[in-house]
Design a protein that fits this description.
This protein is mainly β. The protein has one domain: Alpha-Beta Plaits, CATH 3.30.70. It is about 10% helix and about 40% strand. The strands form six sheets. The protein has a four-stranded antiparallel sheet, with helices on one face. It has a three-stranded antiparallel sheet with strand order 9-16-17, with no helix packed on it. A hairpin with a 2-residue loop joins β16 and β17. α1 packs across α2. The longest helix is centred in the middle third of the chain and has 13 residues.
Length: about 260
């Protein structure tokens, strides 16, 4: 069983919560639906055409937090420019036959904890496994692209187009092992809550635990099919847990990672 693993890093990120209203709130980590969108963009797949190819039935996606981030809020004024006068930050309201000032909208985003430090980024590690022949060509194309350091078809971004990002530290694990354990184990990736049996305790001292509800899968018309709760440490530490399901051991040379895929 092959698994692609690679880092994605950027200075800023915004992963909009699907249940938020006009206030654009963000998740701490990209949902599975965002990750498959990033991969599809890297491969140059047309928008809204890849949901079935990257469904839960056709591929597995995992994520690991690599850096501590913080949330900030700025108020933005979005412009809908249809006429020259719209450039002044107002819009024409036909019922009043006059220009009205736009409303300032709160926008929440992620940034590194120490943003001014060199090499400080919002960083995650993505894991990708193909499960069917339908998804396999995408897996092989992405592996070839990352291995040769080719430019992506579309620039990688963290949520919005102006929050650009880059990939790094690509590894192809050629023989990932499925492991079942009744003992507590250190898991490096985010953990689906339905896989969690219990926290043993002492191994998680100093962790900043976050639980979020994330969208997992779309149907072909972009309607949400599945969402689930996910647990992770905001500091990027591995979590010492007991599981009620198998985990995956990824090994290559001296590198070992124990992960779970989102579901």
């Amino acid at each position: 069983m092959e698994v692609l693993a690679f880092d994605v890093c950027g200075k800023f990120a915004h992963f909009r919560k699907f249940y938020s209203n006009s206030s654009a709130l963000t998740h701490f980590i990209p949902p599975r639906t965002t990750i498959i969108g990033i991969i599809a963009g890297m491969l140059g797949i047309e928008r809204d055409t890849y949901y079935e190819d990257f469904s839960l039935e056709n591929c597995d996606i995992g994520i690991r937090v690599l850096s501590r981030v913080r949330k900030s809020v700025q108020k933005l004024k979005y412009l809908k420019v249809e006429h020259l006068n719209d450039l002044n930050g107002s819009y024409f309201q036909a019922t009043k036959n006059m220009y009205i000032s736009n409303t300032m909208v709160p926008f929440e985003f992620l940034s590194p904890l120490k943003i001014r430090e060199t090499g400080s980024f919002v960083s995650y590690r993505f894991y990708y496994r193909s499960k069917t022949d339908k998804n396999r060509p995408h897996f092989e194309k992405l592996g070839e692209q990352l291995k040769k350091g080719k430019e992506t078809c579309y620039p990688v971004s963290f949520g919005t187009a102006n929050f650009t990002a880059f990939t790094d530290n690509f590894v192809l694990y050629g023989d990932a092992e499925t492991v079942n354990s009744d003992e507590s184990i250190l898991i490096d990736s985010a953990i689906p809550l339905n896989c969690l049996e219990e926290f043993p305790g002492p191994g998680n001292a100093g962790c900043h635990l976050v639980q979020e509800t994330l969208p997992m899968d779309f149907d072909k018309d972009r309607y949400l099919k599945t969402h689930s709760q996910v647990l992770f440490d905001l500091n990027g530490n591995s979590l010492d847990v007991k599981l009620n399901s198998d985990y995956f051991l990824l090994s290559r040379d001296d590198r070992k990672e124990r992960i779970l895929f989102l579901r």
